[in-house]
Amino acid sequence: MPGSAQYSPKTFRTRVSTYWWLGRWPYLKFILRELSSVFVAWFVVIALLEIRALRNGPTAYVEFQERLRSPILVAVNVVALLFVIFHAATWFNLTPKAMPLRLGGKRVPSLFIVAPSYLVWLAISVTVAWIVLRG
Amino acid sequence: MTGKITLEVTRYHPERDKEPGLQTYEVPLRKEWVVLDALNYVKDKVDGSLSFRWSCRMGICGSCGMMVNGEPKLTCATFLADYAPGPIRVEPMKNFPILRDLIVEVSDFLVKLGKAKPWLIREEERPLTEGEFLQTPAQLDTFKQFSMCINCLLCYAACPVYGLDPLFSGPAAIALAQRYNADSRDQGAQKRLDILSHSDGIWACTFVGECTEVCPKNVDPAGAIQQYKLTATKEWVKSFLIPWGRK
To answer: Which of A48, A49, A61, A117 has the fewest CB atoms within 10 Å, measured from its CB?
Structure first.
């Protein structure tokens, strides 16, 4: 038996509740972030199905797009988009913790690591939006 | 500031009680009083049987960590006035077995800390005549933050992974291993690799990040763990590509 436990008649261990993540916002935020991975996967699946429809010819592709316009799928995709944005934003915010950069012996401030990530994200999003919306 | 504030304090006597309960105490609400002062007031004037750990009263010894209104805090640095009008709930640190009242059993951490080898390891000792190991301010800067740890264990109380999986090495032990890995005088990184990159080491961490938030010394254990994940991955790739290279 380790340490002082051998002199103590017994200790009391509290069980962690299944809902431990509900009580505090940082814990809830963490669980939501983990959950957001499901929605990232969801968009990947949609993209794969879209490519399959494209391969099956113009009719199949139009049909697939029609199906995506159903109110339920639009609602699901809006929720998924919010989760994916949350996923990306929290990911960028965590980057400086995992990768502390040093320049000239000094630590680069977090902002200089986070801000470029957001700018690249914005640039790619604008490019994609331009390609999609111009036709 | 005058008046009183109510403390709701966990009481647990291992020989008498089946489980911990709360006891209420009225204490003077003084501007300069911290939660630890209030507990000492209770022990001196109201109920001498109340048990809790404390020593320095100034955020250096790391003994007085407790849950204050559900948050892991050093009670010597947590002012009563910030919780007025109360009540203030004072509980033992979460995720540890309770020994008595506000005292928790921390041997588990001490065993894990030892396994992380938190000391300078040299492949070959230098004779004293060669003088001290010199270090530039930049070299000191790479590990200084991690060396500020006072082993108060608030990070363990904040870590849900440790609560759910007591085998997890935990934030402070890993941060302290990283403190020596990052030290230019140390040559023991390889010896710490196995214990750190174990499934109960860094890879059990899911980056909740609360250890860093509650740390009273800004050690950033979450950062240390994520940085070490990168190091361990690089080491793994190296040992995969050059299996004979590893000592």
So the answer is: A48
Residue to test with chain B: of A4, A97, A99, A101, most B Cβ within 10 A = A97
The CATH number, out of the four listed (3.10.20.30, 1.20.1300.10, 3.40.309.10, 2.20.28.10), of the domain defined by the range A3-79: 1.20.1300.10
Chain B residues whose C-beta sits inside 8 Å of any chain A C-beta = 12, 14-15, 19-20, 70, 94-95, 97-100, 105-108, 110-111, 136-138, 141-142, 160, 163-164, 206-210, 212-213, 220, 222-223, 226-227, 229-230
What's the CA gap between B72 and B242, in Å, rounded? 45
Locate tokens 């947590």: which residue?
A: B78
For residue B32, the SS3 value is coil
Is there a contact between B209 and A94 if contact means CB atoms under 8 Å apart? Answer: yes
Query: What confidence tens digit (pLDDT) does each residue in A2-36 have?
Result: 666 566 568 899 888 899 999 889 999 999 999 99
What span, in angstroms and rounded, lies between the C-alpha atoms of B139 and B145? Answer: 12
Task: Read off the pTM.
Answer: 0.87
